Amino acid sequence: MSDYGFLQDLARDHALLLRDTQKMKHGSANRLANQNGTINQDGRSPEITLTRTQKNVISHAKKQRQVIIQYMSPGIKRHQQNKTIWMSSKSRLVWTLELAVPEITQLANKWVETGFHDVCRPSDLWSRILSSNKTWSEVATDKDPEDAPRKRIKDENIRIMLPSDDGNEYPFKSSIQPKLHQALQEDSGYRRPEELLWLIRVQNMPANKPTFYKIDPLQPLYTQLRYQTVLEFPTIYVYKEAPTTWDGYGVTVQEHCVVTSEADSSEEEQSDSNNEDTNAED
Fold first, then answer.
1. What is the CATH number of the domain that holds 250?
2. Distances (CA, A) of 82 to 28, 65, 86, 259
3. Which H or E element spans position 161?
4. What average pLDDT does range 42-54 have in this prediction?
5. What is the reported pTM?
6. What is the span of the domain harbouring residue 5?
7. C-alpha separations of 213 from 198, 228, 253 in Å
């Protein structure tokens, strides 16, 4: 009986060990997915619950702009930077937008803009940033230095006006860093946006097959994002010469947008807040 009892104890301990091992593996996998911001095809992360604003953005982006937006985990910096909304009053996406200039290597070569209406053209944003030296503080000082808000006077971001599709222009505050702004102004090769190569990376491709597609900066942004998948918000890479490698792998540059598989998937449910601007998250 003692031998039988010993074998029973051994079998029980073995079963407990196997169960604990499986729990540890499952927990590690979940943590890794959360750290990497792993996302599903419906725009959700395994660890994320979308807000009403985010659901509304996903729904309208897909139905009215034919673009798939995927959200990352809340702890990921890119997710925290994303302020994209759907503006129902004007039926457009107001994007967070990242611009990168990889050929500039001596300083930080990318920056994130917020409040870019998708009916506007990237070329206008680029050319007006580079042609402007007027900051918000200078605008406030020129207007009324005594009554100007203190916060605005301290704000040294570039202030420009962006043309919209209705013929009007709206104020836009660029977040470009002063040193990068100066470097781009001093390099004559960046002055004409139509002569530059504008690329967006194709999502859901193997890491060893970096693939980009060209966009036309002279067209509204929404026309250049159709049938594409966007990770949180678009990143546009601006080059003078076409890149040949990316992280050590050969680069493929496509002439036209390629439809991704997500574009053919079933539509998202309409959000309860379809008829209201989503300017603030829950």
1. 3.10.20
2. 27, 18, 13, 24
3. strand 158-163
4. 72
5. 0.72
6. 1-29
7. 8, 10, 5
